[in-house]
C-alpha cells in the first residue's frame, strides 16, 4: 500500500525522539553547569578557608603582632602567601577590621569591607561571597587566637572572575559529554526508526489507523469464518463468524488451535497447517466446510489462513430434499405398482375369475396396510413415522424389505424431531445401502423401546456389517465403507453421534450389523 503523503510513522518517531533527546540533553547540560558552578564555588570557599586557617596559625603572624609596626612584617608575608596560593587578596587585620595588609598598599590602615562579626566572636568556619574593594569575591574570615583571646583576623579571598575562569575550563568537558550523549541518542533513535520503518512498511500513523479500521471492519463483516494462525499454530486473529461456528471462548488469541476446545480431529487438522480445500468437519452442533492455505509476505511464511463456511443448513436441506425425493420416489413406485395391481384385478375380472381378483387385491392391501398401521401405532413422532414409511417404499424399490420390530414404541417429546429424523434417517440409509451389498434375502429392521428411563433405537440389516477393528472409527468424520470420496461421504454416523450427544445420549455398534442409540427419556 503506497503512502499518500506526509511523514511516515518511523520518520515522525525519529523527529520526536530527536527533539526529546535534545531538550533532555540541554536540560542536563544546564543542570550540570549549575551543579559544577555550585561545586566550584564550594570548593573555592573551602580552599580559602584552609589557606586562612594555615596563615592564622602561623607563629610569624603572632610574632608580628608584638611588633611596633605589624604591617612591616605581615605585608611581605601576606603577599608571598597570595602569590603562592593564586588568591586575589590576603588581609590580616585587627579584631575591629583595620587592615594591616592588602594587595593595594593604599588600602592599608583602612577598615575591611565585609562581614567580620562571626570571626571576631571566635567562629572558625565563616565564608561568604561579598563585593569588596577588589569587586565580588569568595572569601573566608578566621580569627587569630592567642591564649583564648581573638587578637587578629585573617581574610583570604578569590575574585568571582577568577572562579569563573576556572569554571570555563570545565565547559569543553561538559559540552563534549553532551555531544557524545546526543550522538548516541541520535544513533539509537535512527536504529529504532529504521526497524520501525521495516515493521510498518513506511506507513504513517493515519494510514496505519485507517488500515486497521478497514481491515477490522472487513473481518467482522464477512459471512465466512476466518482464523489466522502463526507458524506455531497459535491463534492470532479470529472474527465473529468463526467464533460463532466454532463456539470459541473469548480468550483464544495466543493459544494453540488444538488447545481451545475444538473437536480433536478438527483441532489436529488446523494445527497441521497443510493446505486443504473444502473439507467437511463436525463441531458440537454444526457442520463446517474448512479451507486452509499458507499466509506469505515478501517470501516469508507467516502462518496459515483458515476459512470456515457453515454447512449445517445446507446439509439439513440436502437431508430434507433426499427425504422428499424418497417420498416422491415412493409415491411414484406405489402409483406404478398400484397401476399394475389394478390391471391385474381388472384382467382377472374380465376372465371371469372374480374370486381370485378379490383375494389378490385384499392380500396386497393387507400387506401395505400392515406396515403403515404398525408404524402409526408404535411411532408417536409424525415426522419419524412418515420417514419410516417413505424409507420402506424406497427400500422395496431397491429389493430390500424394511421391517418394524415387534413391540416397537417411540414416544413423542423425546427430542427435537429434526434430530430424530437425522438419527433414524442416516441409520436407515446406511442399513439399506449395506443390505443391498449382502446376499438375499435382504432386509432392514427398525426397533424402538423404553428401558430404564431411556429410549433405545435399534437398526440392523442383513449386510456384511462392520469389522470389529473399525467399530470406533465408524463414527469418525470421513470414514465410509461405500465407494467414492465425494463431499459428504462418511458423515452419516458422525451426524448421528452429534445429534445423540446434543440430547445427552450415545450411539454404539451393538452387533456386526446393528446400531443402537440411547436417548434419555424426558418426563413431564
Strand order of the largest sheet: 6-5-9-8-7
Number of strands: 14
Strand proportion, as a percent range, falls in 15-25%
> Percent range for helical residues?
40-55%
Unreliable spans are: 483-489
CATH class of the largest domain: Alpha Beta
N to C succession of SSEs:
HHHEHEEEHHHEEHHEEEHHHEHEEHEE
Helix tally equals: 14
- What is the 3D form? rod-shaped
Mean pLDDT: 78
Ends distance:
64 Å
Sheet with the most strands? Answer: 5 strands, antiparallel
Count of structural domains: 3
**Proper CATH architecture of the largest domain:** 2-Layer Sandwich
CATH third-tier fold name of the largest domain: Heat Shock Protein 90
Q: What class would the helix/strand composition place it in?
A: alpha+beta
Radius of gyration from the alpha-carbon trace, in angstroms? 53 Å
- By CATH, the superfamily of the largest domain comes out as Histidine kinase-like ATPase, C-terminal domain
Keywords: ATP-binding, Cell membrane, Kinase, Membrane, Nucleotide-binding, Phosphoprotein, Transferase, Transmembrane, Transmembrane helix, Two-component regulatory system
Protein name: Sensor-like histidine kinase SenX3
Enzyme class: transferase
Pfam family, one: HATPase_c
